[in-house]
Design goal:
heterodimer; A: 831 residues; alpha+beta; 6-stranded mixed sheet; 24 helices; B: 121 residues; 5-stranded parallel sheet; 5 helices; 19% strand
Chain lengths: 831, 121
Amino acid sequence: MRIDLTQYRATFFEEAGEHLAALEAALLRLDIDPNDPTAMGEAFRAAHSIKGGSDAVGFPDVARFTHALEGLLDRFRGATGGPVPRRILDLLLEAADSLAGLVAAARTGGEPLEVAETLAKLAGAIAEPVTCSDRTTYRVTVVPHPDALRNGLDPLLLIRQLTQLGTVSSVRLDAGALPALADLDPERCYLSWAVRLETDCTPAAIADVFAFAPDMVRATIEPEGPPAGAAPPHEAPAAPTAADVAFPEENAGMMSDFCSEADEHLEAADRCLLTLDAEPTNAEALNAVYRAFHSIKGVSGMLDLDGVQTLAHEAENLLNLARDGSLVLRGKALDLAFASADALKRQVRFVRNWMASRGRLEKDPALPQLLVDLRAAAHAPGGSAPKEPAPLPTKVEAPAPRRAAPAGTPPAEPAARRPVAVDKETVRVDRDRLDKLINTIGELVIAQAMAQEEFDELTQRTGAHSRALPELSKISRDLQELSLSLRMVPLQGTFQKMARLVRDLSRKMDKPVDLELHGEETELDKTVVDQLGDPLIHMVRNAVDHGLEPPGERAAVGKPLEGRVTLRAYHQGGSVYIELTDDGKGLDRDRILRKAVEKGLVNEGQRLTDAEIYALIFEPGFSTAKAVTDVSGRGVGMDVVRRNVQALHGSIDIRTQLGKGTTFAIRLPLTLAIIDGLMVGLGGDVYLLPLLSVVESFRPRPAEVHTVAARGEAVTVRGEVVPLLRLSRLLGRPGAVTDPGRGLVVIVEDHGKKHALLVDELLGQMQAVVKSLDANYRRVEGLAGATILGDGRVAMILDVHGLILLHAQIGGDRRTVPFAAGSNESLGEFS
Amino acid sequence: MAKTVLIVDDSPTMRQMVSDTLRRAGFTVLEGTNGEDALLRLDGQSVQLVITDFNMPVMGGIMLVKRLRARPDFRFTPILILTTESTQDRKDEGRTAGATGWIVKPFDPIRLVQVVNRLVP
């Protein structure tokens, strides 16, 4: 018997889309920080999932290709893997593109993409040994566990293995732990060794020799510093090697506080470093960065986090030199300061992982080199750096003595263009408790509404009055508003990341970019803010890479050489808008259309509005970039952006003018916990339509309803033909009005396209507390959640996008890409 | 002379995968389905390396390691635990019993051979 695989393919494509997005997001993160082991892990898992899925649903080409990609990712996975070389990253990105193409081809049944060349490159890269480009001398310290011999491990075997990795120039025996002969236990291992190994293997490859027995032998691998002659005058502190320290349970609470504090310090440091990028001697920014490193150093020292402490100490030294004027923080020195902040962020992440796993503390393979560089930089200026960090700034104008910022509060903003953040006293609260509080208050509001309704009935029957009830109602509403504001956080942190990203991109692509930030203080639900990062990264990358022209091209059309990117956030009518504007070349309507026709997303001769054409760039697998650059244009991007924004119940619009620039406007609800809804009745039940997507509602005249053979029904609204969706049919609810002339149609908008929903009646508006179906029951197609009405009944919240998908599936149109082709086509025939 | 590796695992599939990998790499392989079975099969044979599962019926990996370490001929023999468990507690338990190292399932054949070669060159 043959199993029909096609029924699973739709699911596979949906999942593959998500995994491709995750893969690309992870690779882009690696692009920024090639040492990010978490990103590598995520990329690997994404590829792994696609491989498994594609094999299961019968796409051997996709599976074979993904297998190779997964293999290469696997080689660079793991906490000890060094930075991913540029060349490999480029190949991985290229492979991710090809994979997206393969999946898209499998989906549309189109011509399979030619990937043999990429496949060969992948195989080649997998076969070559993991090496650094340079031959480096490492000092490998091998400290066997005292019980190593008794546990069957002969340390000499492993030291001999090292000789196979390169040239061992010296082996120093440390017999310091050897006791007097009388006390000597011949089966106990007292010795340790220091091996000088010159090799082109990465530290990870060296560590691999000892990897199978981490408990039996501790090995530390450090690159040797600069040659003896140029060695820094002071003894370099040992590189942190906290690998096998057991998790200090007694410090668990402090450790977690430390992490959140460090996050804030580092965010502040990043922000101020960006200021310093523009004004290298801005005293306040220098002090702020110094304070950030200094605070981290202090606390990490108390917690015995040696890696963090050493790094923070060196970074603090560098900043101190800048503060007293013996070094100017620009060029290499500034890059080092940025790199230190990044490395500290990694360290904090490692500590977090350590807290979660209680296993071992990861080590940062890039750390030793960074420490060496930091020390070199600190000793470079004039060759006579102070031995001790100078205690106070001397040459740079120091600000008036300021009161110490309370721990955990970002230092005041130095830059003139940015609003000054006020130090506020804060209390750290566990996220779960906060969510529980908000949830309980939601329940309270529902209970209050139920009590009110019961009392209203009583009033009608007996004329009873209550003074307490209206008061209770007001208080519970206030309480709810307050509770939601608890979870509101400013967008500042997210915007800051974008500023950093723009700086990196601008340097990498040699495009001068001026980034303007507006409305960073705009607040949004933390859940929303957290999920906004990825789509914004994609958008900013796109803006800088594709939006802005190269300087030469700009000069040719008389634009200022420096491209301008503006990120703006503001509130309007209960929503938050985030707009990204560039003054680049704008979207080319005709090119997008041509490309869409080429890709089979629309049919030739199909009539589309400008908005519909621009919206095509959000279709999976669509990319207009002529050549795929190493930054963006891999076609997965904008698709991900739209999906992420939709997951937040938001929408995204494009405004563009050819030659002048493009604005992407994201509109988001303030919170995901409450929804403004339109209550509609259907067969005696109540449903809630998110008000954000409702355009209008009316009762159609019979002449306004049409049926088109094999295409379904449609309604004419002021000359525009809109597909008609029967809610009762989509949800499988009998007993509803079937004659559109007796019911009502609600016009809803999704992706800038209108649909008409047929319902029985409109019942009014309400603000509903959203209960997730995923969390309490399971995901249901076409439903976004549930809520409890004033009378205690449960009402389902409709998911407009899901309903339209459902319509495309069960309606006459069986295409897999319902938006791009199906509904448009029917429009085309009508209009 | 070919080196002999003792493989102890209650899963026939896993046993076979490990044996095949090592046989192909030129080792002689001895198999046991659990700790007790392995001890019975040893029967005075000389073994250069033991690879054992952690969770097995009748006699688990930890007990097997303890019993082997108690024998003069296995005092210094490398013993690897091949398992899905990789928590520090488990590892500590293994180390105290006398295990040499860990290989986490699912294992990569190339790595397995690499590690085995490191211990019995």
